[in-house]
Amino acid sequence: MISLPNQHEPYDQSLFTGSFYFRVDDANALWLQLKDKATVVYPIEEFDYGMREFAIRDINGYILQFGRELACS
User: Fold this and answer.
1) For 5, phi and psi rounded to 5 degrees?
2) Are the C-beta atoms of residues 54 and 31 closer than 8 Å to each other?
3) pLDDT of 11 higher than 80
4) Contact between residue 69 and residue 62 where contact means Cβ atoms under 8 Å apart
5) C or N: which end of the chain has fewer Cβ atoms within 10 Å?
6) Domain ranges of the chain
7) Which pTM value belongs to this model?
8) What are the pLDDT digits (tens) for 57-70?
9) Which CATH code is given to the segment(s) 19-72?
10) Residue 46 neighbours by CB distance under 10 Å
């Protein structure tokens, strides 16, 4: 779960460094849904290590990566 600051866990800035990686069923469809609604870190592309993926930055500055194995595409 990713949450906003609240009465139980207040904070003034991002505390995590790194990224969250999500394996998804359809990276292309998700890319089309998110690309114009978020800050893009890198657009959807295929990588030599066998993934088709993209990354966005969320409102707290965290990098969220979404990908699918090329063999599954």
Assistant:
1) -55, 145
2) yes
3) no
4) no
5) N
6) 19-72
7) 0.76
8) 988 788 999 999 99
9) 3.30.720.110
10) 13
